[in-house]
Structure formats: C-alpha cells, structure tokens
Design a protein that fits this description.
Layout: H1 5-26, E1 38-44, E2 48-68, E3 74-79, E4 86-87, E5 92-96, H2 99-131, H3 139-172, E6 174-176, E7 181-183, E8 193-194, E9 203-218, H4 219-231, E10 235-236, E11 241-245, E12 256-261, E13 271-278, E14 290-306, E15 310-312, E16 318-323, E17 329-340, E18 343-348, E19 355-357, E20 370-377, E21 383-385
Parallel strand pairs: 1-20
Antiparallel strand pairs: 1-19, 2-9, 2-14, 3-5, 3-8, 4-7, 5-6, 7-9, 9-13, 10-14, 11-12, 11-14, 12-13, 14-18, 15-16, 16-17, 16-19, 17-18, 20-21
Length: 414
C-alpha cells in the first residue's frame, strides 16, 4: 500500500495541534501545572522518662579456674576421671606410682618408734640423777642428763614431723580436684613421667556457675554518666543489673549483678572493665565467649526520636526535619544522649508538641510547604496514619523511608 506524502504531513499537523491545545489547557501561559503541598507523616514530640541504657562488649570469665600440676614426681599409673566430667571437691584425677613414698612413710614410722622407745630411758636417767644430786651425781652430770632428756624429746617430735610429711607426700600421689567444676582433657597418659611442680599442667578444671562477664566501657562515657548524675539530669539506678546478648543473637534469660568496676583505665584502649556475675546452671555461657551486655544506668527526661527520622551530618551532628510555622519544613540540629531501642534519646533541639517528620525525608527541603499527616510507627517499623491505615493513605505508595515488615529495624543502643 502506498502512503502519500500529503497524508503523512496532515497527520503530523493534527498531532502538533493537539499537543498545543493540551499545553494551553494545563496552566496559564502554557506552563506546567503547579504542584500543591505534599502530604508527609509526622509524629508529635512529648517529653518523657526514658531509661538510660548503655551497651558494651564483654567476655565471659570463669568463676574459678585451676590448672592441676603434680606436687610429687613419679610415673602416672592411672587416670581416674573422664574429660568433661562434672567434679566435686576432692574427686580423684590421677594416681602416681607411690612405692617410694610408701617406703618413706615406713622409714619415718620406724624413726618415731625408736624415738618413743628411747624417751623413757632418758627420762629415768634424768630422774635418777636429780634424786642423787650431791650424793654421787655432780651438778654437771645432772645437767647432762637433763640435756639428754630434752634431746630425746626433740628427736621424737622431729621424727613425728617427718612421718607426717612423708604421709602427706604419699597422699599427693593421688591428685584430687581442689574445686567443683568441669574437667578438661588430660595432657598426659598412663606411663608418663611427671615431676613435682612442673610447668605443664596435667588438666584444667573450670567452675562456670556462676560465671563472670567482664564488660568494657570507655572512660569518656563513664565521665559523661557521672556528669549527668552530678547535674541531676540522670536519675541513678542504685541496683545495677545487666542483660546479655549471646553470639548467636539470643537474649540470655538471666540478669547479672554488679561485682566491681576496675579502678584503673587501660593505657592502650582508654577503657574500664566492669565485672558482672550471672547464674549459669545450664552452662550456656562458656568462659571465653564474647557477648554484648546492656545496663540500665537510670532514667532521664528526654524525647525519643525514631532513628529513621534523623541522620548525621559529615561533622557528626544529628539533624532532623520538623514542621514549623505556616506548615513549612525546618531542619533542626539535635543533641542526643545515646539511644534506646530504635530511637535516639534527645535532650536539646525539640520541645513539647513539635511535629517531627518521619516520612518523605529524601525530597524535603527547608522552607518547603507541606501537609502534615499524624502517623504512628508500628512494631514492624512501618508508619501508619492515626486512622489505622498505612502510610500509603497519606498519598499513594508508601512514603520514602518506610521500613518493610521483612527488613530488620535499625540497630538499638550503642
């Protein structure tokens, strides 16, 4: 089919005329139609009592830990425990060949018997010399008899002490657990030769119920907390307790009690170690495990600003948008005191009744006129208007900054 040049030209003229007519109808002077104020979600700020919670990294430390070493030398004849076994105080661990020590005990017993037999002889000699003093015994002979008696008594006491030590060494040939705890694997086997007080331990016993957790906090934050307490802006919690988040993200069900803070600041990291004690009957917390602790220091009056509604500038300052006079947006600088759950704790930069913008932040500019729509933020981090609908009710698709239900909320307290 042949299309003539005049047909194509006519169609082009018709389209051009239609476009001109649409532009003319859109706005005076042929310009684009003006956009009205956009709707944005806001929440009203209210001063409230906010828990001052700090989180800090920590590491589990055994309540007691003992490295077992032999106190006498000899050949290991028997291993008397099973690795991983829960031991009580006094449970046997190893048995060392005791032949030498049995012989030493026998020798010491013989020495004691000899000394005991000699003592009555010396006693009788002294009694006789004292009775016959001046009648056949001189004063010097009496003193010699007294000295011999004293020497016999001393010999008996020394032999008894030697016997006691020999019996003690014999008892050391069976190594026993000095604490209640769980035994590690052994480092020796039957037939190995061990020596007294050697540097290598035979095994390690760990008591982990209760268990200590050493948390590390910066000295600057400690100074900030003390300043808040001194100025009265922070109401101190007299009963400090800690909660733990384990390495897999689980929250440990028990709470820890403060044991003691360190009295010094690390010269390399500028941190202070604070120790808490946790009940650990099921041995869930293993010594050496890294954890994250949260401690409620007290409460303070502040505003809770959702983390999604504020951002930090390159200088580190926290900024947010509020709705000011004539429904125009203003950017404000906030002074925060850390965070609580998914909100910043703000003490300066806001006032009661201030409308804080939580939606449409990426397209906002200071001085822009808006229509504020009161909203709430649900447990999934999605904004909903006060009538119960989601943020799309305030104008089309979900506003910028909404957090889908399947995406985690921002990180809590740092």
């Amino acid at each position: 089919m042949t299309v003539s040049f005049w047909s194509i030209t006519g169609a082009a003229l018709v389209l051009a005329a239609s476009s001109t007519l649409l532009v003319a109808q859109g706005a005076p002077g042929g310009g684009m139609p003006e956009m009205g104020p956009s709707e944005i979600g806001v929440i009203e700020m209210t001063l409230q009592e906010v828990p001052r919670v700090v989180t800090a990294p920590g590491r589990a430390v055994a309540f007691q830990e003992v490295e077992v070493r032999p106190r006498v030398g000899g050949v290991v004849e028997e291993v008397l425990y099973t690795p991983g076994q829960l031991l009580e105080v006094g449970d046997p661990l190893f048995r060392i060949d005791d032949a030498t020590y049995v012989a030493s005990v026998a020798t010491a017993q013989a020495d004691v018997a000899t000394a005991e037999a000699n003592l009555p002889v010396m006693q009788a000699a002294y009694d006789r010399a004292e009775q016959l003093s001046g009648r056949g015994y001189t004063e010097a002979e009496v003193e010699a008899a007294r000295s011999s008696l004293a020497e016999a008594k001393a010999t008996l006491e020394a032999n008894k002490a030697a016997l006691e030590y020999a019996q003690t060494e014999l008892s050391w040939t069976t190594l026993r657990s000095p604490i209640a705890g769980r035994a590690d694997v052994t480092t020796v086997s039957v037939g190995d030769l061990v020596t007294a007080s050697q540097t290598d331990e035979l095994t390690t016993i760990v008591a982990a119920d209760p268990v200590y957790v050493d948390m590390v906090e910066t000295s600057s934050r400690i100074l900030s907390v003390r300043k808040g307490i001194a100025e009265g802006t922070l109401k101190r919690n007299d009963n400090l307790e800690a909660t733990l988040t384990l390495e897999n993200g689980d929250i440990y069900r028990g709470t820890g009690k403060l044991v003691t803070p360190s009295n010094t600041v690390s010269t390399t990291t500028g941190t202070v170690t604070v120790r808490f004690s946790f009940e650990n009957p099921e041995q869930i917390i293993i010594p050496g495990m890294f954890v994250r602790g949260a401690v409620t220091l007290g409460t303070m009056e502040a505003y809770l600003v959702p983390q999604r509604a504020a951002s930090r500038s390159n200088s580190g300052k926290l900024t947010a948008y509020i709705v000011g006079e004539d429904n125009k947006v203003e950017q404000v600088t906030l002074v925060d005191e850390g965070s609580y759950e998914n909100s910043w704790i703000v003490r300066e930069g806001l006032s009661d009744g201030t409308q804080l913008v939580v939606d449409g932040l990426s397209s906002l500019r200071s001085g822009q006129e808006v229509i504020p729509v009161p909203v709430t933020i649900n447990e999934n981090g999605v904004t909903e208007d006060v009538s119960g609908g989601d943020s799309s009710a305030a104008g089309g698709p979900p506003a910028d900054g909404d957090i889908p239900a399947d995406r985690p909320a921002p990180a809590a307290e740092e």
